[in-house]
Structures are given as C-alpha cells and as structure tokens.
Amino acid sequence: MTEAALRKIDNGGVVSRTNMPFTLDTGIGHRAAIGLVVLATDHTIEHEFRQMLGLDGVTVYHSRIRNAAEINPTTLAEMERGIAAAAEVILPGTSLDVVAYGCTSGSVVIGEEAVFARIREARPGVACTTPITAALAGLKRLGARRIALLTPYVESVNLMLRDFIEARDIAVPVMGSFNHENDNEVARIAMSSIREAVLDLGREPGVDAVFVSCTSLRVAAIVEAVEAELGKPVTSSNHALAWHCLRLAGYAEPVAGLGQLFRV
Q: pLDDT digits over 160-184, tens only?
C-alpha cells in the first residue's frame, strides 16, 4: 500500500461497523442432525453417507475412534473404551437427533446396549443406532425372514455375526465372505466384486433379501441396480445405517434412487 493510501485511511477512509443486525435461522441440520462415530481405519462410510444423505435440512457430523486395522473379536472389543469420548466431541453442547456408532462387527462383539450406554455417557437421552441395529430394523421393515449374508470377515467374526442375526428371528441360510482381515484393504474391494457376490448369494433359492455387512464395503451406489437385477431387496451396513438415522431423527419421506428400503 502506498504512503498516500495509508494517509487516506488514517484520515478516516476506513469504515468499521460493529453490532451489525442479524437473525438466526434453524441451521443446516434442521430436519435431521446426525452424529456419526467413524472408525479410524474406515475409508467408506463418510463418502457413502454424503451420497445418500445430500438432503435439504439433513447433515452429518463425524468424529473418529481409534481402532486396529486387523478386524477380529479382540480388536473389536477394545473399541468400547473410546466410544464415549468420540461421541462427546461431536458438536459439544449442541443438540443432535441421533448418534450412530459406525462399526457392524464391533457392535456385535461389544453389544448394542453397551454401545448405546457408552454413547449416552456423553449424550444423555439421545437416540442411538449401529449398523447391525439398523440392518435388523431395515430387514424386518422389508419383511425379510431368510437372508443371504455377505461379509469381508474372518470366520470367527462371521460365525458370531450369523448367530447374532439368527437369535433375532432372521434366518441366515446363505452366507459368503471375502475372508479378509485388513480393514484398509477391505475398503478397496471393487464394487464389481461386491456386485457379483451379492448376485451370486442372492440368487440362492429360499432367501428373500441380501445384507452386506461392514461399513468399509461400497454398496450405496449400486443398490438400486442390483435390486432390479436380482428382484430382491438389498441393504448394507452403511445403507441401512443412513436409513435408520433418518427415521430415528423423524425424517419419514421416501428417498429416490436408493433401493427399496429408502422407499418404505
């Protein structure tokens, strides 16, 4: 700035107004304010939530929880100690409609009620969900009683998950797994591979829906097309979780382009 310009400012050329009038509106999450606890190793869930929940008045706020990349019952159980802290740093002091913990197998190992209790240590009274909670609610809403289950997990986690689902009155007569323990690499399983596996398992007679378990697997972008080809409902951890968060927050309208679950 030149010396002449500086003299002009010094002589009163600067306009400074304080206490400008303003009003407050209802904010970007006035239809649904969703808190989401994401695994440190998760590459996928935030991306898919943006794909599915780009709705007026709906917004998602994230935090991350430390976890091991190797997915097994021991590493999954260790996450319980960090859930409350992760929930606490999502907009402290601001009301949220729902808080979700984004790990399917972790919710099975820790237990849904234990997950909810840890969330409510930080957010008393908030509506809570997990991917397995949401998947069970979604499958029952679709009327599914016998499902094909696709996972990336090792056998110890697969058996635990299958028992968990069947104990809640949904049979799992067909199951397939990519049998891969590393969460960073599970996120890179191609959607074409997931699509072919869903179709393969879903075509088995005697199943009326397919559930793809694991928040790292990418399904949201293909669910509508796969359902049309298969002729049966398809959902996944992220797909069901996004739907359940909307419904728990009171957002009841159908959402086009995301398969049968989002239309019920």
A: 999 999 999 999 999 999 999 888 9
Q: Per the structure block, which two tokens stand in for 47?
A: 């991306």
Provide the greatest CA pair distance for the chain: 85
Question: Looking at domain 32-132+242-263, which of 3.40.50.12500, 3.30.43.10, 1.10.150.120, 3.30.930.10 is its CATH number?
Answer: 3.40.50.12500
**What would the CATH number be for the domain defined by 133-236?**
3.40.50.1860
How far is Cα 107 from Cα 157, in angstroms, rounded to an integer?
Answer: 12
Q: What was the pLDDT predicted at 182?
A: 87
pLDDT for 10 equals 53
DSSP codes, 159-211: HHHHHHHHTTT-EEEEEEE----BHHHHTTS-HHHHHHHHHHHHTSTT--EEE
> How many alpha carbons lie under 13 Å from residue 224 in its C-beta half-sphere?
9
Pairing of strands 127-129, 98-102: parallel
DSSP 3-state of 35: strand
What does the block give as tokens for 7? 């003299």
CA angle 206, 211, 215 (to 5 degrees): 165
* Measured distance CA(234)–CA(219) in Å, rounded: 9
Which residues in the chain land under pLDDT 50? 1, 4, 6-8
Strand order in the sheet with 127-129: 58-65, 32-39, 98-102, 127-129
Question: What's phi and psi for 70, nearest 5 deg?
Answer: -80, 120
All CATH 3.40.50.12500 domain ranges of the chain, comma separated, are: 32-132+242-263
For residue 121 the two structure tokens come to 């240590």
Give first-to-last CA distance, the chain, whole Å: 63
